[in-house]
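Incident log, entry 3
Record: 5252_t:CDS:1 (71 residues)
Problem: checksum mismatch between cached and fresh output.
Input:
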Amino acid sequence: MYTKDPFFAVKEEVEQNFANATTIFQSWSRIYNTVASRNNEELQRTEEELTGMLQNVGMDLDDLEETINIL
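Fresh output:
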């Protein structure tokens, strides 16, 4: 049975989450530049989503570092 190398599994997850964060940041930037107030609901929701995604990327990087240390 083939098992995927843990390094590459975590690396792929980091790359995917980073790509998602980049997309969310682009949306946030577009919204930020078009709304009159930082209290805009869509801006706040996108900001929360971006913050959560960046936290996920941080945790994934920690996992990647742990995997490297194990190897």
